[in-house]
Every structure is written in structure tokens, then in C-alpha cells.
Amino acid sequence: MSTLSLTLRDSSTMLRRNLLHMRRYPSLTLNLLLTPVMMLLLFAYVFGDVMSAGITGGGADRSRYLAYLVPGILMLTIGGTTIGSAVSVAMDMTEGIIARFRTMAIHRGSVLIGHVVGSVLQCLMSVVLVGAVAVAIGFRAKDATALEWLLAVGLLALVSLSLTWIAVGMGLSSPNAEAAGNNALPLMILPLLSSAFVPVDAMPGWFRPIAEYQPFTPAIETVRGLLLGTEIGHNGWLAVAWCLGLTALGYLWSRSLFGRDPK
Amino acid sequence: MPSSVMPTTSRSDGHPSPAAVSTIGLRKSYGDKTVLDGIDLHIPAGSVFALLGPNGAGKTTAVKILSTLVSADGGQAQVAGHDVAAAPDGVRAAIGVTGQFSAVDGLITGEENMLLMADLHHLSKREGRRVTAELLERFDLVEAAKKPAQSYSGGMKRRLDIAMTLVGDPRIIFLDEPTTGLDPRSRHNMWQIIRELVSDGVTVFLTTQYLEEADELADRIAVLNDGRIAAEGTAEELKRLIPGGHVRLRFCDPSAYRSAAEALREVTRDDEALALQIPSDGSQRELRSILDWLDSLGIEADELTVHTPDLDDVFFALTSSTVPSPRGRRDQPKDAR
């Protein structure tokens, strides 16, 4: 069997294993949705009026703030879901079955690829569910064309891929599930420090660099631009560059961690 | 310290059989702790080899290196004709490994575990189903097949583990302490399973801390102690390495004990237990002459037991530096054999 078809075959076997885990234990996936949905409702209904008045400098307009909010919430959803991936990778690595995989003549990386593809699918599913809640409470992107929708979904998938590889590295480098959950927290904290809730311009000067020079802000601005027609500018390329960079970094990091001798 | 390496049986005497596993000077250390300190092994195909040793002797590390799980620091190892360092995938294609800790996926069912193995061995769907059904049947797991593996008992998990190892029809099987933690019935079942594997021509590399197990199953045994092979040979050869066979006479009456001890000057005395030990190989002829001798001196012991050296004696003699005094155990009466 050629290397490529071996990779594909073993990786899809491992993916089936991960999907089976998710299907057997759906509560793990659903729990991860609680935080973004809660944030969405909190910011839309409780803070919505104040936030919109503050940002637009005019009257309160909750539906406009909801539109502003949703792209960031979707990124937060992805960040939260990938924390779950870090935890499940760390948990998996403590299982004896991983040692068994290592002594079998299978594609070495297939275990990780199975986790990554499973996690990206999980992210997209979560985005759809949280997006559905957003639509249910009044989010609309009427002006977006089919192409813009497609690009937005594509970017969300790319963000999922890059964050998942980073999360897999975090999971592999953690001794146990608890440590992995803590180590992966930045994936949830970074979107809170981005332009998800307020524009960078509205932040205090000393804080702006933190919001500006991180992957979530350009990604959120790009999705905003695609769905709501705001200015994208250089954010599109910046977002793609961040994603590709993080994917490469996470991939190489994870591969070297997995290649090491187990304890 | 234990004596230096005891003479091992002829290994380099001409006709080499095709080796399933062979190593030369295998070394491994973790930090500054040397775990394996130059291990030489030669295991002919189709045989059962037992690596015997106390906890921490390096048994698991040896299995990990030979099964390509970790790399050695020095020396060479060939498994199924492939070098473990240079051609690990060649080794992996020929071996099956059942580690010390259960290597099953607890979140999915026993049957799904088996099908997962079939997929990873690239069997067709149909072939995978057939092999799964056959092995579940053979290992008495049909009833539990649809339950998650984490709900299995220790013995069931171990059976599933071995069944998964057998999916790819490996020619060399590594079993790292396959019966540790099993109840006596499960242990005997496991022995039966291992015997069946061997009758199919599979080479079995087994580690154990149970001497009885090595004695029961293995063609050849190596005693590993402190990272070195302290002795190697068949169970019989190992037993011959150390003296220890004796006839033990126990008395109830101290005065009878004292007079017997005075009459039999050359025997070993155990004043506390009121027991005397007369060296003997345990053969009928020697036993008769001892009895005749005792009769002629008018000595009648209250209890006579024949102690033949067993692997316990060998084990304690060879690994004495890591095991507290073996005397307490050695003096226990054994059934006459």
C-alpha cells in the first residue's frame, strides 16, 4: 500500500474511533457549548443596550450590537471546543491503547490526524449550533452573498484547524487531562481579549496591542466584513496568515511530541 | 551482591536455529538509572521464552524496546529478522503486544475494539467481521461484546486485550506480565490460551514475576536482575544451578532432637524449629539409604519432608540483593515429589 493511501486509510479509521467517542458521550461536546451560548445571551440581553450605546456613541440598539457580537462568539465557540480537544488528547495519551497503536504497522500520525479532523468537525458543528441560537434571537446577515457565506465558513474551518493543532500539542505536552484543560485556557481567553465584544478603537491605548496582535481580532474582523459588510482591509490576509502559521507550528510541535519515546 | 553470572547453558555451540528475537548488549537507562545493562538474548522461532525477574528488574523496558515502543541507548536487537531501530515497521508487522496495562479502548465496546484492530490491519469488512466473531467466541466474550470495555472485569479486559493482539495473526507475541492481577481461574485460562498459541507455531516472549508460570509455560527462562541476565536455561537447567535439595527431619521432643543431632554430625541444625536437614537429591535410592541410616541409629523423626530445589530457590539465590533474606521461605516444608 502506498504511503498516501496508508495515511488516508489509517487516519479515517482513527477518525471513526473519535467520532464514535463523541457519539457515545455527547455530553462532553454539549458542555463545551454552554459557555459561548451563555456569553451570547448575557452580552445581547443584559449588556446589549449599554454596549451598543457606548460603541455607536448614540442611542441603544441591541440588534446592531447582536450583529457585532456574533462573529466573536463564533470564534469563542471554536476556542472553547478546541480546549475539549486538548483534554481528550491528553486523556487518550494516558490510555494503554495508544501504546498498542505505536507497536502496530500503521501510519504513525494517523492517531493525531484522527483527533484533528474529528475536532474540526466538532468545531463546525458547534458553530452551527451556536449560530442557530444567534439566528433564533435575531441575528441576520441579509446582505451577505453566497460566496461571502462560503468564505466565512471556510475561514471558520481554517481557524478551527489551526487552533486544533495547537490544542493537540497542548494536550500531548500535558501529563493529564486536568493539566491539559488549564494549559489550553488561552484558547478561550484570547478571544475575550480581542475585538469580539468591543472594537479595538474603543479600548484603552495600553491594551490595544494585546487585542491587535493576536489571531482572533483579524479573524473576527474578516468574518464580520464577510457577513455584515464592514471594512475588511488587510485583516483577511492577516487572518489567513495567522491560521497557516499556527497550523504549521501546531503540526510540527505535535508531531515532535508524539514522536518522542513514551514514558 | 549476587555471585557473578552463573554458567549458562550452551548457546553458541554450532547450529543456530532461526531466531525470532535476538539481542546483543542491549542497554537502556532513564536519567542516571541504568535499567538494562547489556542484555544478550537468542530466542528460537516457535518457542516460549520467559523473562523472569523481581519488580523493577527491567522486564517491561526490555519488552518496550523489542516491541519498538521505546528506543535502546545501546546494543542491537533484531525481531523477526528486522532491526528494531532501523526497520521498526518491519518488526511491527510481525509482532503482537499485550502490555502490562490494558491496551483496550474503554470508551467503545469489545466488538468495536476488535473491528478497530481489523481496520488497522487493513482487513476487508467481511474478513474483519469474521475474525472478530471468531476471536470473541474463542475468548468467551460474545455475551459482553456489545458492552463498553471499561465495564469489563480484569480477566475479561485481559482476554479482550489478547484477542485484539491476535487480530493481525502475529508470528511473535510479547506478553508483559499477562497474569498479574488475575484470579487463579483466570490465570489458568490464560496459561491455556498461551499453550494454544504456541501449538500454532507462534513465538511467545513472556515476562512474569511468577516462577510457577515460567516453569509451566516456558521452554527457556532468563532471570533478569538489576538490568542483567543472571542466568538462562530451561527450568531444569536453572534448578541444577543451585544446591538446595534436602530431607528435613522435624522433632517434637527437644531431647530426641538433641540426641539425633549428636548422632548425625554432618547435618544442618535448626535448633529453634527442632529440625535437621540432610542434603539429598530427592531420588528414591538416596531416600532409602537415609532411612536405613536413621533406622540403624534408632532415630525416629515426627515429620519427614523432601525438599527439591525449585525455581523459587533459583530466583532467590540469583536475585538475593533485591530480595530480603530468602531463608524464611526456603525452610518451608514442600510436598515430597
Q: What's the structural blueprint in terms of helices and strands?
A:
The complex is a heterodimer of chains A (263) and B (337).
Chain A: H1 3-24, H2 26-46, H3 48-56, H4 62-93, H5 96-102, H6 110-136, H7 146-173, H8 177-183, H9 186-192, H10 208-212, H11 216-228, H12 235-259
Helix pairs in contact in A: 1-2, 1-6, 2-4, 2-6, 3-4, 4-6, 4-7, 4-8, 4-9, 4-11, 6-7, 7-8, 7-11, 7-12, 11-12
Chain B: E1 19-30, E2 33-44, E3 48-52, H1 59-66, E4 74-79, E5 82-83, H2 88-94, E6 95-98, H3 110-120, H4 125-138, H5 154-166, E7 172-176, H6 184-199, E8 203-208, H7 211-217, E9 220-225, E10 228-233, H8 235-241, E11 246-250, H9 254-263, E12 268-270, E13 275-279, H10 284-297, E14 303-307, H11 311-318, H12 327-330
Parallel strand pairs in B: 3-8, 3-9, 6-7, 7-8
Antiparallel strand pairs in B: 1-2, 1-4, 4-5, 9-10, 11-13, 11-14, 12-13
Helix pairs in contact in B: 3-4, 3-5
* Number of distinct beta strands of chain B: 14
Radius of gyration of chain A: 19 Å
SSE topology string of chain A? HHHHHHHHHHHH
Contiguous low-pLDDT stretches of chain B (5 residues minimum) are 1-15, 322-337
Largest sheet of chain B, order of strands side by side? 6-7-8-3-9-10
SS content category of chain B: alpha/beta
* Total domain modules of chain A: 1
What's the count of strands of chain A?
A: 0
First-last Cα distance of chain A: 31 Å
Strand fraction of chain A: under 5%
Number of helices of chain B: 12
Largest sheet of chain B: 6 strands, mixed
On the 0 to 100 scale, the average pLDDT of chain A is 92
The helix count of chain A comes to 12
The low-confidence runs of chain A, each spanning 5 or more residues with pLDDT under 50, are: none
Cα-based radius of gyration of chain B, to the nearest Å: 24 Å
Organism (chain A): Streptomyces cyaneochromogenes
Subcellular location (chain A): Cell membrane; Membrane
Pfam family, one (chain A): ABC2_membrane
Family (chain A): Belongs to the ABC-2 integral membrane protein family.
